[in-house]
Design brief:
The protein contains four helices and two strands. It has helices at 3-13, 29-35, 49-55, 83-110, and strands spanning 18-22, 39-43. Helix 2 links the parallel strand 1 (18-22) and strand 2 (39-43).
Length: 111
């Protein structure tokens, strides 16, 4: 089981509620069927800041934990990566996480 799948299952099996932003919502169909309204799945491209801003809405009224597991692999030595490849990786792994965190904190201030 992949790490992100394990984390989701662990939260849900413990009785927690989970808002999961994923590229392909159908990937979580089995968990959605098993856990019902404790799992809210949102199709989300974390590189789209507008989508991040509207993804969660008020799914559960309050967010206690934010886990960003977005990323992608690039299997090449650093010196062979173009600036564009490196920039894309950096944005996905850092800037998108900051965008999600900013949105979460803003929502908490108003919630």
């Amino acid at each position: 089981m992949a790490s992100d799948q394990y984390q989701r299952s662990r939260v849900l099996d413990a009785g927690g509620r989970l808002l999961a932003g994923v590229r392909n919502a159908s990937q979580l169909a089995d968990l959605a069927q098993k856990h019902g309204d404790r799992l809210h799945v949102v199709a989300l491209d974390v590189t789209d800041e507008a989508a991040v801003q509207t993804a969660g809405g008020q799914a559960f009224g309050r967010l206690d934990v934010l886990v960003n597991n977005a990323g992608y692999g690039r299997t090449a030595p650093f010196e062979q990566m173009s600036a564009e490849d490196f920039r894309g990786k950096f944005e996905r792994l850092r800037l998108d996480a900051l965008s999600e965190l900013k949105r979460t904190l803003e929502e908490d201030d108003h919630g």
